[in-house]
Design brief:
Length: 169
């Protein structure tokens, strides 16, 4: 009797907390490819704030999109063309290097989102920081195709050459 109840509870949890999302476009290449299926945890951002380095599902321009959370409230962001610095540190994947131009501090509840392929995606470099309310959940697991099945750890961006500055870095 306990096994069917536990199974039903697990299915209910998955239905309420996890949402499959198909990657549309190439703005998150090479981390995510067009057509891949990603599982998004829609509960985590109700329990805690989004963290720098996570891939978030956001609603921008009325459409759900996956973007990198590059900066969080209190971080200082500097942008020059496609190049981005966070807290004075260059994000290497954006081509940034050296000293940053003058930046601005993100206010409470404001986040800076990035496409990994700036030439094909629109992000906070174009429309500015976004409010936390547009962040719907954290991309958690690649589901499809089967060869791509693996978790998307919070700091995977580090291993992809993004060199995300950490707290206090």
């Amino acid at each position: 009797m306990a096994l069917p109840v536990a199974f039903a509870a697990a299915i209910l949890f998955a239905l309420l907390c996890l949402r499959p999302v198909r990657v549309a476009g190439w703005s998150m290449y090479p981390l995510l490819r067009h057509g891949q299926l990603v599982l998004v945890d829609v509960l985590s951002y109700r329990l805690r704030p989004p963290r720098r380095g996570e891939i978030a599902l956001a609603r921008l321009g009325g459409m759900p999109v996956l973007k990198l959370v590059a900066a969080a409230p209190g971080d200082t962001i500097a942008v020059q063309g496609a190049m981005v610095w966070v807290n004075g540190q260059p994000l290497e994947a954006t081509g940034a290097q050296g000293e940053p131009p003058p930046g601005r501090r993100l206010g409470p509840g404001r986040y800076f989102l990035l496409s990994l392929a700036a030439d094909v995606g629109r992000d906070s470099r174009h429309h500015g920081p976004v409010d936390r309310r547009v962040l719907l959940g954290r991309a958690w697991l690649r589901l499809w195709p089967p060869a791509a099945l693996r978790p998307l750890p919070e700091r995977e961006a580090d291993r992809r050459g993004l060199a995300m500055p950490g707290p206090g870095r």
